[in-house]
Amino acid sequence: MSLSIQPFDVGLGAAVSGIDLSQPYSEDDFDEIELAFYDHAVLVFRGQTLEPEQYINFGARFGEVVSGYYEPNRMRDHPEIIVASNYNQERGTFQPYNAGRYWHKDRSYLPAPTSASLLYAIEVPHDGIRALGDTYFADTVAAYYALPAQLKDRLESLQGRFSIAHMHERFVADGVQEEENERSFKARIASKFLQTVHRIVQTHPLTDRRNLFLSEAHMVEILDVSRDESQSLMRCLFQHMTKPEFIYRHRWQVGDVLMWDNMATIHRADSDYAPPMRRTLQRITLKGPRIP
User: Fold this and answer.
1) CA 96 to each of CA 84, 100, 101: distance values in angstroms, whole numbers, following the listed order
2) pLDDT tens readout for residues 210-254
3) Residue ranges covered by each domain of the chain
4) Is the four-CA dihedral 253, 266, 260, 286 of positive or negative sign?
5) Using a CB cutoff of 8 Å and minimum separation of 24, what contacts does 28-32 make?
6) How would residue 292 be classed by pLDDT, with cut points 50, 70 and 90?
7) DSSP 64
8) CA-based torsion, 10, 16, 17, 20: positive or negative
9) Global confidence as pTM
10) CA–CA distance, 153 with 122 (Å, rounded to integer)
11) Strand stretches in the chain, DSSP E
């Protein structure tokens, strides 16, 4: 079976078939996958069975793999992989896992956010009718180009302030429970990066496409405007970015490998499952460039 790339009907993302990522593949196949990744921003590989080394090696073809930055969730023998799960295998207990609850760009609270991320589905919750814990991706490139010209001009000079502490504050306000280790990690990051500022309109370093750089989870405010205008403009932009025409909804299956371009998208996950249902994904993060 030869490599096939089938774009999704929604305009964001594509399914890649005809390749087993655990086996050697040709440079021509990789070149086609890489081109498709930057064309479609989200790629899905179904039915994969990967050892950690195979998974890491595939991710490393797209950039430098960053060792898991959230220490308690690192895979013991492969620190490049974060185990994103509501179940702690070592303790045999369930734990709150809400990291993807709000729309966000990964690590937007750092001067050099993630360039891309990958998830590999190990366990997927199911209610007997359908899989739960879907992940949603929104196209921040298409959203930018769909803005009125006057608003594009207004955004060109604006910057936003980002902080990981903002997500914790939202959790508190919304009554969302956090794992103690997660709170401790956020506190350490927040103390190191008290304020990270990024331009709201960015240019993708590889595609030269313009995109909206906002993160509902981490963006505190828009600078150099009044508080009321900041809140109103952020609310308007998030509503625009997450219109149905910009969204791909991924329904997980065990064995899925999904990767996304962090600059070109924002994403969030459903929290519509509870113990004893388990959701376990293995995550790889790729280092990104420092951005304005």
Assistant:
1) 11, 12, 11
2) 999 999 989 999 999 999 999 999 999 999 999 999 999 999 999
3) 4-286
4) negative
5) 29/3, 30/61, 32/3, 32/5
6) confident
7) P
8) negative
9) 0.91
10) 45
11) 4-7, 14-17, 42-45, 65-66, 74-75, 78-85, 87-88, 93-94, 116-123, 135-139, 159-162, 196-199, 201-203, 210-212, 219-222, 247-250, 257-261, 265-269, 280-286
Q: What is the CA radius of gyration of the chain?
A: 19
Which alpha helices (DSSP H) does the chain contain, by range? Answer: 27-40, 52-60, 140-145, 149-155, 164-174, 180-192, 227-241
| Confidence category of residue 192, pLDDT binned at 50, 70, 90 | low
- Taken in order 108, 200, 178, 99, is the CA torsion positive or negative? negative
Of the candidates 78, 84, 1, which has an alpha carbon nearest to the alpha carbon of residue 46? 1
* Measured torsion, CA atoms of residues 258, 130, 127, 247, in degrees rounded to the nearest 10: 50
State the distance between the two ends of the chain, measured CA to CA, in whole angstroms. 44
Question: Considering only CA atoms, which of 184, 160, 58 is closest in space to residue 105?
Answer: 160
And the tokens for 148?
Answer: 């009125």
Among 245, 246, 248, 178, smallest CA distance to 217 is for 178
- CATH homologous superfamily, domain 4-286: Clavaminate synthase-like (3.60.130.10)
Compute, in degrees rounded to 10, the torsion defined by CA atoms 175, 179, 180, 185.
-100
- Judged on CB neighbours under 10 Å (0-12, 13-18, 19+), 236 is exposed
Note whether 216 and 266 are within 8 A (CB).
Answer: yes
